[in-house]
Design a protein that fits this description.
CATH class of one domain: Mainly Beta
Mean pLDDT: 88
Number of helices: 7
Radius of gyration: 54 Å
Strand order of the largest sheet: 12-13-17-20-19-18
Structural class: mainly beta
Number of strands: 33
Low-confidence stretches: 341-351
Strand content: 25-35%
Shape: rod-shaped
Amino acid sequence: MTLSIAGINKAMREVGLADESQYFLKIANVPDDNCLVESVRLDGWTFHRDFSISVKVLLRHELPDDDVIGLNATLSVIDRGVLSPLHAIVTEVRDADGNGDYAGLELTLGSALWPLHQRRHNRVFVDRSANDIARDVLEQALDGHGSVEVLAKTTPVLPMTVQYEETDYQFVRRILAREGVYLHLHQADGDTIVQLVGDLSQLTEGETPIPLRYATNAGAAKNDEHIFKVTRVRNAATRQFQLADTNPWLSTDLTSQHDVDLASADGVQHHWGLNTQDTDRSQALGDRLAEHALWQASTRVFETTCRSLKPGSLIELTDHPELSGSFRVVEVLFSGSQRGAAGNGLGGQENAFQCRVTVIPADLAYRPPYQPRPPVYGTFTATIDTEVDERGLYRLRYPFDARTESDGPASPPTRLMQTLGGEDHGMHFPLAKGTEVAVTCENGDLDRPIVLGALYNRQAHNPVTDGNARHNLIQTRAGQRFLMDDTPEQEAIHLETPEAKNRLSLSAEQDAHLATLESVEGDVRLHAGEAMTLESGKNQTTTVGADHTVHVKGNQQLQTEEGKITVESATDIEYSAGEAIRWQTREGEMTLSSGAAMQWQVGDGLTQQIDSGDCEVRVNDGSFLLEAAADILFNGIDSGTLTLAQGDGLIQIDSGGNLTLDAPQVDITADTIAIKGGTIGNN
């Protein structure tokens, strides 16, 4: 950066300020000698934070304040004859006292991080590291106000990182601090380089130690840079940090314990659910919390005339009775005034320049303060972005996520809460892509979402409304339905496949209870590994559209307790048995009737036995044929008579064996006729 120092000094003398300016303000394209610095104050130049500079200037020419807000500005301080720049951005302009014809303005300058305060986003980063996310956010926000350089080692890839209702400034600082990485505003010649740092040794500011002796300001003026006051700051420190967490996919114990090596430390901080994910990350986060507590309790404040100090500078303190040694600068504050500067020489500079730095012992690690995001308790809505995966999980897209599908996955695989689940049991109704769901967060951590269930909206209409308010319904995407109808006097349960082509219906309507199992287009199969019982209190009807086949491995029994059994066929009825067939009535009659012929065929003998009563064979219209390949035997028992009759003809054998042949005419024709008898009578 080139300034017209001679022109500025001339202008300074014109307005009655110092003969030679020690501070210079350059604002974008505003002429160098237009803003003459009267006083300056720098606050909060430290790691991982925005700083603020207040500059009182006198204007040689009018400055349109609306045009300078947001412009780059550089405050330069003369350090050992060389300009030392501090790059910033104009954030506020306010009227101030002038000097004669010269108007006064008070400018507030912010660091290159100031634009991050003005940017507020809601977005989700998936499978990205904190360093990677922070670099992208910074590069988008800086937009000509600086550049980004990552010096820290690679940080772990995180499944999900949510920025929700946070400025970019809050978000970047939070996610980096968790990983022990901090922002450093390195002041190069041309602009600010925002560096992501993981260790103080990575800073160029500390490459060359700055030797400073301790000397009080009492006595004669001192012509060298020195430290004139040392203040020890004692802060309370936590003695121990304890971390604990769970990971549903790991059986590892995620508890860790971290001690602060400080005699005065006291107390224990227990942190639950910081989303450490595994033992290594739990250990690393706990170590960083302990390191931060240690350096916070070990600070010193040096007041000095040195203008070269910056965050990260390494000081070699000498001549102090107790604290000589190496110290690392962690914060710088300075102020200066040129209202009554004494002209040339270092003595004048001392009166005009005051600097205070906060330091820590050089052997201590610096860690930024990590403050977890406050828990967010409540629910959010999201949309299912992918179908269920191999672990039964879903990726979600949040309505507050400013990213689009082209920016990468919507979320990591997310669990769905179920009303029942366990090691070997559970339930799951898969959610379709595009389904709106309600989401909550484990331990209030937005990076650990859990799906609570599905929601209806303008695209997904509720299947139960005031029109069917008594329906308790489960309906799948394919049209499977399970309905429990609580409508008064129409209570029923229905289980149906699509279009009700297969259904089970259990109706409890008043006075009309009915159970129906139906397959409109397919088969119905009933199977029991053991016994099966079908029982009806009244009638039972079986209707078969085609064949009816019953296969029984053991015995089959068809029995009525009171009524009759009717077997009827439109064509034939066939009874077949591998062995015997027995028909029996215990008390009543048995009737076999055939509309056409009836045929009995026996493989080995036919026996008919009548225990009591008569046996009658009658042919109303036709012949009676009795035929045998061997003998035909008619045998009467006891006192009965054997009679063969036709018209007036009769052949009869009584119980005594007497044969009566009676007919109007008897013809006996044979080749030979033999008649034998003890007596032959003649009427």
